[in-house]
Amino acid sequence: MISKELQKALIEQLNKEYHSAYIYLGMSAYCSKEGFNGASHWFLIQYQEEIAHGMKLFKYLEDQDVEIQLPAIEGVKVEYNSFLDVFKKSLAHEQMMTKNLNILSDLAMKDKDHATYNLLQWYVTEQVEEEATVKGIIDHVKLVGDNGYGLYTIDKELATRVFTD
Ligand code: OFO
Fold first, then answer.
1. ipTM of this model?
2. Which family does the entry's similarity section mention (predicted)?
3. 17 is in an annotated binding site
4. For residue 123, which atom of ligand 1 is closest to its CA?
């Protein structure tokens, strides 16, 4: 049985996963508007991944007989300053998610809730990959600066991303 405190925190995390998806949908819309169709596609895949993260948690909560609550998902912005800015904001968001997941893991560990701890480690590992990928993109964008052809090439590469989980 998951403790009440942890149940509440997991329900909040569920909302955060869907909110993340929504944030990425906004980022996708921004990139599309600016003509960065590859980046728009990349964020759309990111949106799908966050939905999958939410569904994984939703299924776990159901399996553990946690009473599901679905509070409102906060609205998001669709305006950013630049190609670089949108990826920087994406990284900052993922770093915040990593912090949350670490707090949740601490809570599961304190409760000696091995099943929940184990589930959370999947998310923690996923965060390492997500942060590294976004950092890599930021590095490339910084390298090309305002060079139009450079940005075009990065955008083209981002268009090749496929959905993995
Ligand atoms: Fe990218 O965050 Fe989900 O977990």
1. 0.95
2. Belongs to the ferritin family. Prokaryotic subfamily.
3. yes
4. 4
